[in-house]
Amino acid sequence: MSQPPAIRVADLSVWYGAQRALTGITLDVPAGQVLALIGASGCGKSTVLRALNRMIDRVPNVRWQGSAMVGDTDVLGPAVDVVALRRRVGMVFQQPNPFPFSVFDNVAYGPRLHGIKHPARLRKTVEDSLKQAALWDEVRGKLRRPARALSGGQQQRLCIARALAVKPQVLLMDEPTAALDPLSTAKIEELVRELKGRYTMVVVTHNLQQAARISDWTAFLEAGRLIESGQTGTIFTTPRDARTENYITGRYE
Amino acid sequence: MTAHSRRLRTDRRQQVLLGAAAGLYAAVGLGVLLMLLVSSGPLLLRVGVWQALLGVHWNPLAGQFGLVPFMSGTLLVTALAILLALPLAMALAVVGARVLRGTGPSLMTRGLTVLAAVPSVIYGWWGLTTVVPVVRRWSGGPGFSLASAGIVLALMILPTLAVLFQDALTRVPPTWQEGSLALGATDDQTLVRLIWPAARANLFRAMLVAVARALGETMAVQMVIGGQTIWQLNLLRPGATLTTQILTDLAVFPPGTAGYRALAVMALLLMAGMYMLVRISERWERTP
């Protein structure tokens, strides 16, 4: 597998209509490492995430300034092929959102989109993706069952497998464990640690312990501005900014 | 008497009242069925069920009660109407559910609902003044034809079908669509590979509603079909359907005559067809 790309966001501002969602965000994620985005609801974490795979395009009247390099491509540039970009930059959502198909057809959805028809190749891709997402042992022999019969945690790992099946280089996760119980959460966290190195990852989370456990880098956002970012260990032990300290010690209002 | 027991009595009275209303409705429905069975029974016993259903000649005064011309007319007109309306309704639904933004979809739904509520005689009128002359010029025949009936019917069921299709498409959760787009699917691919399959049970049931409406429509069809009782399959020639023939001949045959009994058989056939549609639709509800 090729080396995953580094991500460099430079001076990114985003507006939804007249409302400013992000102001001058600058962030770096080295290749193959994990960045956790933390901050209160509505601070712009999800907007950063959705800028990286251009899902923000779906919001009417959205505008932006600045750049976001994934490898050598500015994903916010005017000439970017959004469809090709989203193959490189996969996404996992807050609510597990398996399609109303079988387990197999869920994982095969992406590869089929991109023209893979050969049954043996599809099968191999599906199996590899499910193994990478640590779901294979639980669903082998049940690939024809409806995906929505799986448990919530299994559904979320299925969604990760579905994202991996198109062979992305970057994985974006938008509060991937917000809807899950602690055991399922632990499995997803373990999975993130396993996938580290093969994919560059950005994870939005409200769970600070989770950020500390899974990420190499942490960025704290408040009201659309980046307050502080750095190595996770540093942010959680010796934050420079008082607002960061207040947030991570629970004195945030 | 305590407030509580008063309330209990009111409750009981309401139950009796509502139960009686429901019972009355069921009784009327069963009464219609019974009436049709009693009316048709003697004829069916005399000429035999298959004789009646499979005969191709309709001449009650001469003792011929073949219903094939009308069954064939009903099926052809309905099939043509569905065939014409289906792609147009889907196109409208896709525009309403996936293309228009802001107030567009609700405006479109409102417009379609108004069109769906237009009385069928007005659609028939339009057929008479527009469709029939066009078919006449095009085919050289009389213009009154199975094709004219199918076209008028298609336009009539189009708004209903489009609204139901649009509803079925918008019921597919946005989170699924985001999932598809995030995998690098285009909007078109998302429609074809995710939204249609995900909505297929609702789409199919919408189609059954349209089929039922087409099967039962009488007035608009009667105005343009020509009322020909000789069996033929040329869409550009006149024909008749079960419903239009009931309308025509109810005025001709008094109760008790053999012709009247044959009309009751037609009505039973229609009810059987509707019942089958309901059963099929139920089956689809259970397997999403």
General description of the model:
The complex is a heterodimer of chains A (253) and B (288). Chain A has helices at 45-52, 82-88, 103-113, 119-132, 136-139, 152-164, 182-195, 208-214, 232-237, 242-248, and strands spanning 7-16, 19-29, 34-38, 62-70, 73-74, 89-92, 170-174, 200-204, 217-222, 225-231. Chain A has 253 residues and is α/β, with parallel strands linked by helices. Chain A has a domain at 7-98 and 173-248: Rossmann fold (3-Layer(aba) Sandwich). In chain A, the strands form 2 sheets. Chain A has a 6-stranded mixed sheet, sandwiched between helices. In chain A, strands 2-1-4-5 form a 4-stranded antiparallel sheet, with helices on one face. In chain A, strand 4 and strand 5 form a beta hairpin. The mean pLDDT of chain A is 90. Chain B is mainly α and 288 residues long. Helix content of chain B is 78%, strand content 1%. Chain B has helices spanning 3-47, 49-54, 68-99, 104-116, 120-139, 146-170, 174-182, 187-198, 200-216, 219-225, 242-250, 258-286; strands spanning 58-59, 64-65. A two-stranded antiparallel ribbon of chain B has the order 1-2. In chain B, strand 1 (58-59) and strand 2 (64-65) form a beta hairpin. Chain B is globular and about 70 Å long. The termini of chain B are far apart. At the A-B interface, helix 2, helix 3 and helix 6 of A face helix 7 and helix 8 of B.
CATH superfamily of the domain at 7-98 and 173-248 in chain A: P-loop containing nucleotide triphosphate hydrolases
State the share of residues found in helices of chain A, binned by percent.
Answer: 25-40%
Our measurement of the CA-to-CA distance between the termini of chain A, rounded to an integer number of angstroms, reads 45 Å
What would you say the CATH architecture of the domain at 7-98 and 173-248 in chain A is?
Answer: 3-Layer(aba) Sandwich
Query: What's the end-to-end separation of chain B, in Å?
Result: 52 Å
Beta strands of chain A, count: 10
Average the pLDDT over all residues of chain B and give the rounded result: 87
CATH architecture level-2 label of the largest domain in chain B: Orthogonal Bundle
**CATH homolog superfamily of the largest domain in chain B:** MetI-like
Mean pLDDT of chain A: 90
Number of domains of chain B: 2
Structural class of chain B: mainly alpha
CATH class of the largest domain in chain B: Mainly Alpha
Question: Order of strands across the widest beta sheet of chain A?
Answer: 6-7-8-3-9-10
Provide the low-confidence segments of chain A as ranges. none
The whole-angstrom Rg of chain B is: 24 Å
